[in-house]
Specification:
- Helix content is 63%, strand content 0%.
- It is mainly alpha-helical.
- α3 crosses α8.
- The two termini are 33 Å apart.
């Protein structure tokens, strides 16, 4: 995954100006108003994912969830960061690399019981709370992801 991504711009972006206030106004106008950008972009998504997998590795409460994953979580970290970025309105690289796939289809081959789904939801909500403390949008994102995870539990 590249270290940085260009900020998407709209077709009606104002011409660039040389004043500091004009540049700030253009940057504000050019940045989409999506959760991805409002939360802080890739650095925040990566922080959430890193905290999520760190919790899985270190907290006994998530042992059953951790046991479902490969010993090396590198690819999982990269994949979840890309998924969350696109899902939250950022670059859609993960979706372009995985056409027609979503979290439900990716996890369909696995038996995910309600307890494991709950562990995933709890770890993700904790990771979001730790990476974006006090952010209402982040809390809402955690609630939506919790519902998605619990929907996978059989």
């Amino acid at each position: 995954m590249p270290e940085s991504y260009p900020v998407a711009t709209t077709a009606d972006t104002a011409p660039q100006t040389t004043t500091a206030s004009g540049e700030a106004a253009q940057a504000e106008q050019a940045t989409p108003n999506t959760p991805f950008y409002r939360l802080g972009g890739y650095p925040v998504m990566q922080a959430i994912v890193d905290r999520f997998y760190d919790l899985m590795d270190s907290e006994p409460a998530f042992a059953e969830l951790r046991a479902m994953h490969a010993p090396d979580l590198g690819k999982m970290r990269e994949g979840l960061t890309g998924f969350l970025a696109g899902w939250a309105g950022g670059p859609r690289d993960w979706f372009e690399a995985n056409p027609g796939r979503c979290m439900m289809s990716v996890h369909k081959p696995f038996t995910i019981n309600k307890a494991v789904a709950g562990q995933w939801a709890d770890a993700m909500k904790q990771a979001i709370a730790d990476a974006a403390p006090g952010n209402d949008l982040a809390k809402t994102m955690g609630s939506v992801l919790e519902e998605m995870a619990l929907g996978m539990g059989r």
